[in-house]
Amino acid sequence: MSLPFIHIVAGATASGKSALAIQLAHDLGGVIINADSQQVYRDLPLLTARPSAADEASIPHRLYGFLGGDEPFSAGKWLRFAQMEIDWARSQDMTPIVVGGTGLYLKALMQGIAEIPAIDEAVRLQSEQDYDAMGREAFSERLRAVDPAFFTRLKVYDKQRLIRAYSVWLGTGKALSFWQQQPVCPPYPTEQIRVHRVELPRAELYARCNIRFRMMVEAGAIDELHALHPLPSGSSLWKIIGVNELSDYITNKISLDTAISRAQQATRNYAKRQLTWFRNQL
Questions:
Q1: Is residue 246 part of a domain?
Q2: CA distance 224 to 217
Q3: Are residues 41 and 142 located together in one domain of the fold?
């Protein structure tokens, strides 16, 4: 008996991909597996647009809200979890439906990802201490000296990425870019994968981004963030769209209208980057 196909539903934020995934799951007898880097965290379900309780009750959902905000995560870790969920679903003759807009996750699933040796927790803590002691600029220059290729791959180098690259070098003696350049194999044959790309006209997508963020606020996004305030400086939750803007409102730095406007702009910018990635990669 052949195994069920692996369905991937990819699209920008607010494009309607979750609704399509649920419809596919009903039609095919499926399990929905999260591929959104913000929805893996258990905190801030409104700001991360997690599936509703009713949706989760109607269809099995996996890899949603299972991490704390202080737990670092990566595409490699996500792939290991996703493979376990995909393999389990197929063993039960259920269709795995992977849905999300995090390009690195989807690329890892479709093309594979370099195997990087596990880094000891003591090494990671040492890296964080070095970052705090040296400061961002000096830390980045030290990392650039041992891994210049790292700085040619990305446009944004946040603290977590810098510390990750530094930890790999410190723990293995080889640069992160060295490990990333090693040959990789796709975890599943291409013929077993079906891709559904959800794409709306840009004006419509941007309008949906604006409406959805305002609906998040009306549903209580400020209250859920206020309950966690103040967030630790190293928390992964700071990367969630809307956290910075609403935090500035909570601390009386800006008005609510300004916070909403800035968060809507950040959401539209993110959607634009996603559209570019999907068009080039899928």
A1: yes
A2: 10
A3: no
* Segments in the chain forming alpha helices (H): 17-28, 53-58, 75-91, 103-111, 121-134, 136-146, 159-172, 176-180, 202-219, 221-226, 243-250, 256-281
pLDDT class for 160, splitting at 50, 70, 90?
confident
The model's pLDDT over 221-276, given as tens digits with 9 standing for 90+, comes to 999 999 999 999 878 899 999 999 999 999 999 999 999 999 999 999 999 999 99
Last residue of a domain, one of 135, 168, 198: 198
Q: What are phi and psi of 34, to 5 degrees?
A: -70, 135
CATH number at residue 62: 3.40.50.300
Same domain, 206 and 153: no
- d(Cα 98, Cα 6) in Å, to the nearest integer? 8
Closest of 234, 246, 202 to residue 70, by C-alpha = 234
Q: Are residues 39 and 159 in the same domain?
A: no
| pTM metric for this prediction | 0.86
State yes or no: pLDDT of 182 exceeds 80.
yes
Of how many residues is the chain composed?
A: 282
Angle at alpha carbon of residue 82, lines to 13 and 280, rounded to 5°: 45
